[in-house]
Structures are given as C-alpha cells and as structure tokens.
Amino acid sequence: MSENKIQCPCGVYIKDDQYKLLYLKKDIGEIDILCYNDLCYLKELGYLKFHIDESQKINFNKGRFYSPFVTWNATRMSEEKASDELKRHLIFITENLIDWQKVIEDYKANINKKREKETS
Ligand SMILES: [Zn+2]
User: Are 99 and 30 in contact (CB under 8 A)?
Assistant: First the structure.
C-alpha cells in the first residue's frame, strides 16, 4: 500500500483541516502555518503572504510549505504525489481555515493604531 497521508516529520499525520494558524505579523500580511502537535520540534510548516489594499481587498501573494516538511513527504510518497497533496492543503487552508473577515478587521485596527501614534 502506498502512503498518501501527509505527515509532519515529528510523526503526526496532518489532515487539511488540522493545521494551526498564527497571525502575528499583521502589518506585513503573513500567516504562519503550524503543526498541531504542541511538542513538534519543527512547529512552522509554511506560510501564506498577502497584501490588503486601500479598498480592503485581499491580494494573495503566495503560500508555501517549508522544505523540511515538503521533502519529508516527498520521500515517503513520491515527489509528484506529495506536491499535489500539499498544494491541495494550501488551497484548503486559504479557502476554509482562515477567517479573512477577521484578518481584514485586524489589519484595519492595526493601521488605525499606527495613524494615531503618528498624529499624537
Ligand atoms: Zn509536527
């Protein structure tokens, strides 16, 4: 039987809806994609980058997984299979796991805070 489940190098299998997301770098529009295992030694598996323009529309720049995670899965499955599956995961994360409305609100709040600082 060939392996077709994505696994983190720490040992846990990860389904597309099991990633943890960390949105700390609000002003540069970056979301970190983390392993759900609290004891994971890698923790960060990838990231999503985007830009929010004046009309508060989100422009998606890019999303990718880091190479230790990609390589781990490519060796277990095949490069092609791993790449297809990880691409599917990235799309799922973008479309289903991120609360974009909240991201936009946080971004607005952050900009306002900055403006207040500049004028005070
Ligand atoms: Zn892990």
Answer: no
